[in-house]
Design brief:
By secondary structure, the protein is an alpha/beta fold. It has eleven helices and twelve strands. A seven-stranded parallel β-sheet has the order 8-7-6-9-10-11-12. The chain has a five-stranded parallel β-sheet with strand order 2-1-3-4-5, with helices on both faces. Helix 9 links the parallel strand 9 and strand 10. Helix 1 packs across helix 11 and helix 5 crosses helix 7. The protein is elongated. The termini are close together.
């Protein structure tokens, strides 16, 4: 949804623009610098530098995993602009309030994710995990390859990240299927929609790539039933959120040899604890949440444009639908 709020362009001087993040966030200063450079007409500051009067003047804040209690110190706050694309935590914390949430929609982020999807799809397609194990065992053994056009890659999620990934996969020659909550049509892609069509897609999938937002409906969607619907020796890439994949069901599928390999960039708990089973499992590749890092320069420019337009006209960019969770 979008809406109009009272513009402040006619009421100089502008109130400070707070950047609100988790305590001890290591990139806080870098974000402050990037945002200030993108918004030279504003005074972008850390929340803890503002006194009560200054906080009372703030109507918009830029946020990175803020504590709800910090936002409550801004009594006139009307909306927040996240510097992340994923906003499930913000929705959980603020979804029952009138505060509007704007998430980051950055074409650079989609392109970076698409690059990662292609890279790790090729990693699985060309049997790199198997050859890495063979190297560790000093084993010289070649295996028959599979042509890209004979490999089906299926995407869970056909939003901006999915669309960009589809283009890369099709260009590399893969057969591509996609699933979304509501029907979509994409050239070159066999599209599926809704719970009823998910098993049929999974049954035709060699590599399953998860790009879904985390919502109550998607939590645990890749569970025992979904994993059992995949052909034997299929593989999984999770670049979405950890809780979308049922951890126990995934481990059982890998231990039983039904699932050939899992590339995991996201986990229920991050950083992944040293005691977690994924670290040592021979059929798991662990990544430290690096599939699509936010580019501070492009993200700051997008945030700046949205805030600048609101200052001038009162028009908000697309806000998160709290009921859907994105």
């Amino acid at each position: 949804m979008s809406g109009s709020l009272s513009p402040r362009a006619s009421l100089p001087p502008l109130p400070p623009l707070p950047f609100v993040c988790a305590l001890g966030y290591p990139a806080a200063q870098a974000w402050l610098q990037a945002l200030q450079a993108a918004l030279p007409e504003e005074r972008v500051v850390a929340l803890d530098t503002l006194d009560a009067d200054q906080r009372a003047a703030c109507e918009v804040a830029i946020v990175a995993n803020p504590q709800p209690a910090d936002l409550r110190t801004l009594p006139r706050l009307q909306w927040v602009h996240s510097v992340w694309a994923g906003v499930e935590r913000l929705v959980a914390d603020l979804g029952d309030t009138d505060l509007r949430i704007v998430r980051l929609v950055d074409p650079q982020l989609a392109d970076t994710m698409a690059e990662a999807v292609l890279a790790w799809t090729l990693y699985l397609h060309r049997d790199m995990p198997r050859y890495a194990l063979q190297q560790a065992a000093r084993q010289w053994l070649a295996h028959d390859g599979v042509r890209a056009q004979d490999r089906t890659v299926s995407l869970l999620g056909l939003g901006a990240l999915g669309e960009a990934s589809v283009r890369r996969l099709l260009a590399a020659g893969f057969k591509v299927r996609g699933w979304s909550r509501t029907p979509r049509q994409m050239e070159g892609v066999q599209c599926h929609a809704g719970d009823a069509e998910l098993p049929a897609m999974l049954a035709q999938t060699d590599i399953l790539v998860c790009l879904l937002p985390l919502t109550p409906q998607t939590r645990g969607i890749v569970g025992a039933q979904a994993l059992a619907a995949l052909p034997a020796h299929a593989s999984l890439i999770n670049f979405a959120r950890g809780p979308i994949v049922d951890d126990a069901a995934l481990r059982a599928a890998l231990d039983g040899g039904r699932l050939a390999h899992a590339v995991l960039d996201v986990f229920d708990q991050e950083p992944l604890p040293e005691s977690s089973w994924q670290w040592a499992h021979p059929a798991v590749t662990v990544l430290p949440h690096i599939s699509a890092p936010t580019d501070r320069a492009t993200a700051s420019a997008i945030v700046a444009g949205n805030i600048r337009r609101w200052r001038a006209s009162g028009e908000l960019p697309q806000a998160v639908d709290a009921a859907r969770g994105y």
